[in-house]
Amino acid sequence: MSKIKMWRPQLETLPREELEKKQLKYFVEQMRYVTEKSPFYKRKFKAAGIKPDDIKTMDDVRMVPFTTKQELLKSQEEHPVFGDFPCIKPEKATRVFQTSGTTGKPLKIPLSKKDWFKTYYDQFSYYLCGYGVTSKDVAFFPFTYGTFIAWWGVQATMEQHGVTVIPGGGQTSDARVKSIVDWDATVVCGTPTYVIYLGELAKKLGIDFPNSKVRIVITAGEPGAQVAATKKLIETLYGAKNYDDIGSTEISNFGFECVVQTGTHLIESMFLAESLDVETGKPASEGEVGELVLSNLFCESVPLLRYMTKDLVRFNYQTCDCGRTFLRMDGGVLGRADDMFTFGGVNIFPSAVENFIRGIPTFSNEYQLVIPKQGSGKRMTIRVEPASADITDEQAKNAAKQLLDNIIYNIKITADIDLVAPGTLPRFEGKAKRVIRAS
Fold it and tell me: Are residues 140 and 94 in the same domain?
């Protein structure tokens, strides 16, 4: 195991009782702040009949109404450009970002100078220390950023920590693979899907990533680093450790994996986290799946309180072997509430199916799940492709049977396997779209 390094050891190892006292104090202070600075929250709290002074215990926090993405989008429609939920004026924005818009209209987020250079620096410093990144590292970023927040914060924090940054935007995938070796990169960042694609491309080009200088691969944007088969694949392709990075544009980055690699830590010194049962809305028990609800305790620009992330997680409050008392999300983000689907009476996460697909070397690492309308009588279809044109029809059929048997045994459903020609399924540089719902 790599050497354990912490950013704020005095906070990362606090006993839970002391940690929760700090969280409650900061939550109430943030509630006062947004009541004064944000017309959106002032309206919301007045309608709910609640004031900051009403919050005296952690249980009282649940009296505060949720914040949803739909509300924020409506606010921006009625009060363009940023809406009336931010706590800063538009001219105070040093950086602006927007969500990917994969589930609807993009949400625009402004960040003040303080948030960009201090708050985000603090957040991402937890990440870099957790991964074991140092000023001796050389980090390669194989993509173009645009207005999406992904990787901007990591890069900016790396620069402040003295890490050498190599931008790979504007290059072809072939050139990016060669750049990783030419620049002696020790850290590579990307979505699991694209990192795997580059790793496989390197093999085709005769470039030996496992014997290169790469020692850390940071992945974000999709469940992957916590999907056992995907993590193993990435670590095999690169001969390096694969670490998880979790966050979103609207609530910012909140989860990192440490060198022990037994779940993703949540930065509890900067966020108050809740896991709520999707159906009842009550707190999910430790170890049970719930929707992650976050309150940002230090952001001054867009400090969302009780924000429903739609991420499904499983909390673990046991002290990690690294010494951190920050809760861990076992399996990272298990999936999105939007992506989780019920089929045959079973709740299914795409990442669970992914684990079985990537455990069969006959298949490529691309796949799609086609979900029929409920009540149609049709089966779910798992669309896969052979890893290469050299795979025989018999090998492909045997692999399909193996996949189907795994799905039946482990997930308890029967699906149709749709074998398509090699290279047929789409490749993604950013977030992959793998769930297709039949209309």
Answer: yes
